[in-house]
Amino acid sequence: MAARKDVDQYGFERPEDFDFETYEDFMSSYLSILTRRAIRWKSMVGEREKIAKNFKVKRFVRKGIPGEYRPMAWMCASGAQRLMNQNPDLYQKLLQETPKPEVHEAIKIDLHRTFPENIYFQSAEDPSAKRKPLSNVLTAVALNNPKVGYCQGLNFIAGLLLLIVKDEHRAFWLLNTLVSNILPDIYSPSMDGLKVEQEVLAELVRIKMPEVHQHIENCDVPWAMICTKWFICLFIDVLPTETVLRIWDCLFYEGAKILHRVMITVIKQNQEKILACSRFDQIVAIFKDITANTSLMRCHEFMQSIFQEPGSLPRAQIKKLRKEAVKKLAGPEAPI
Length: 336
What we know:
By secondary structure, the protein is an all-alpha fold. About 65% of the residues lie in helices and about 0% in strands. The N and C termini lie far apart (about 70 Å). The mean pLDDT is about 90.
């Protein structure tokens, strides 16, 4: 029998208690899905280095983008490729500029905190290491988005982007597109966008699962405590890496609404456990245990469930809920 690898395909060291049995059981069926999807993507894309936005491609994205097509697909679907083509020299120009001292220091501190369990982030001297590209990407994004600067959490997103696209120029444009277009104001110093999305999630849970919503409210658990890390880190260090990547496939193609689908599904699948809790600390513990559930490793089944279990989630509804959340957060004295 072949020796089990202590490092996964993305360079993450597996913990001592890693559940190899569950993982191998999952991979035994998932590998055939990956092979089938790769064949279909090759047939669809052909020799082109781009994808369109239509129903067929959307369906293909939801079923998972093969690793070899992921960088190209993320760049095209998010609009980052178009922006890079319009501003091909921007990244290098930004790297010639000097960030504010507080931004530089914050990024410097977080470089050592980013994926210490990943072999590509453990050494600053190794020429294949990612710390220098990570610093470059975070600095450039901060300079290009002065109202945002740098926010903790972006280091993990940039780090995973570097591991997947393997190119800091494209990683910069993808992170820049996330910060400025897909998730505007989530990472701003005031975190107004984050607060709005938390309100939207709470309201969606109230609509979809009123009993769960009331129970969480009765136990005085702030929604910020439940979902802040989910939004800020886009499920990194919350869900298994392969599941995170499948979510990002849809995030870059469909936008932020996908995050709510994931969160509602996770809560819905665990509503009985949540309702069985009677105290604040129990609910907090349940939400930590939820994301450690090995069933979430089965990314293909999980991604199918996020488009079924939450039911209808129209963009118009999300837009309306965001507008109401902005008004609520502004307070009663704010102008309408």
